[in-house]
Specification:
single chain; Purple Acid Phosphatase, chain A, domain 2; 2 domains; five-stranded mixed beta sheet; 7 helices; 39% helix; 24% strand; binds manganese (II) ion
Length: 261
């Protein structure tokens, strides 16, 4: 079947944090994006399928099926697909590395760009203190919280006897934990540090749902954004130029033009 729209061709397209299987996923927009673009390399930079959500309740509408189908047909037509796993598709990490013809399932990938730069492609949760330990913490959390509440009772009994007011141990610990939650800048810094120590020129990541291209400490930092809030893609053209595509803005523009006509 021939497409009536002219396809835009890129060397590489990088997408992350699609969260298929969750209600927030902008699958329809992504499907429209994929329909209009072609590439030699498609990098899926983690959190593509939201296994956490799928486990609690199955949500898998037609638009989500369409996205998967489109990616599969791209791979059949010659696009090399690298599926890099993230923390939300961590179930798939059990099966990596896996090679299914044009589709490869891996935790990270070393990509030499058109301009000859060595780029590390990785989801990024490995460098986020919160998600790295957060999962185990949330399981433990309930038990700890119960213990804390009884500890708190004893503590306040003594505080009252000594003439002090009520004080919440669990609140105190929660506030402390919040201070530990790393900011985007800490995340970026630790990724850049990893890049440098391993001899990379740059990094392509996702995870924090914040699309960005910038130079940090001489390292090219590319964050692809996401398909839940920002609806963005990172692309590399055949001249080796990288740019972010704000697909939400493009779709909004199209709607406006349609209304005006
Ligand atoms: Mn993530």
């Amino acid at each position: 079947m021939k497409h009536n729209v002219s396809m835009i061709k890129y060397k590489s397209i990088f997408l992350s944090d699609i969260h298929l299987g969750s209600k927030g996923c902008q699958a329809k927009s992504l499907y429209n994006f994929l329909k209009k673009h072609e590439c030699e390399n498609l990098f899926l930079v983690g959190d593509i399928i939201d296994c956490w959500r799928l486990k609690s309740k199955l949500y898998w509408p037609q638009e989500h099926v369409d996205v998967i189908r489109n990616i599969l047909s791209m791979s059949k037509n010659g696009t090399k697909v690298k599926y890099i796993t993230g923390n939300h598709d961590d179930l798939l990490r059990l099966y990596q590395p896996l090679n299914l013809g044009n589709i490869e399932l891996i935790e990270e990938y070393e990509y030499v760009s058109v301009k000859g730069k060595k780029l590390l492609i990785i989801h990024g949760d490995q460098f986020d203190i919160v998600t790295r330990y957060g999962r185990h913490l949330s399981i433990l959390g309930d038990k700890i919280y119960t213990v804390l509440l009884s500890l708190n009772k004893i503590l306040n009994y003594f505080r009252a006897r000594l003439g002090y007011g009520h004080w919440s141990l669990s609140k105190y610990l929660k506030d402390k934990a919040k201070q530990l939650v790393n900011k985007a800048s800490d995340y970026e810094e630790s990724l850049v540090k990893e890049c440098k120590s391993r001899g990379f020129d740059g990094i392509v990541c996702g995870h924090i749902h914040k699309a960005e291209i910038k130079l940090i400490d001489g390292i090219d930092y590319f964050n692809t954004g996401d398909w839940v809030e920002s609806v963005t893609a990172l692309v590399e053209d055949h001249n080796g130029q990288f740019k972010l595509i704000d697909w939400a803005a493009i779709e909004n523009q199209e709607i406006k033009l349609l209304r005006a006509s």
